[in-house]
Amino acid sequence: MVEIKVEHIHPQLRELLSFATSKQKVEGIYQTYIQTDGRRLYGFMLEEDVIGCIGIELLGQNRCEIKHLAVMPNHRGKGIGSKMIRYIKDVHALSVIFAVTDIEAVNFYEKCGFKITSLGEKYPGIVRFRCILKV
Description:
about 140 residues, alpha+beta, seven-stranded mixed sheet, about 40% strand
């Protein structure tokens, strides 16, 4: 894992972030990570390739919110997402990690030990979930 702080976004990182948000928002989101003190963006490397990323917002009192988490499709199901969560937990000595996600990622967070609560239909036809892990 490496913290990403460079001014220009790597093409693989751009693709990863587009899995976690819309393609139109990637550049702005990336700049927020680069320019905001409480935000951190980490890349999971395999040789020279960025195959996963996790972006967090540190909230004080050993807490953070996972803002973005993505793994390249051909590397999913290999434990990379959970390794990234363990990494940020250890590096930042976190006691609480939370995320808000959609139905597609709920099982992943549940397998990682997060408690899941439905937030209901946040947008028309789209149910969102709060995921909380107390370490």
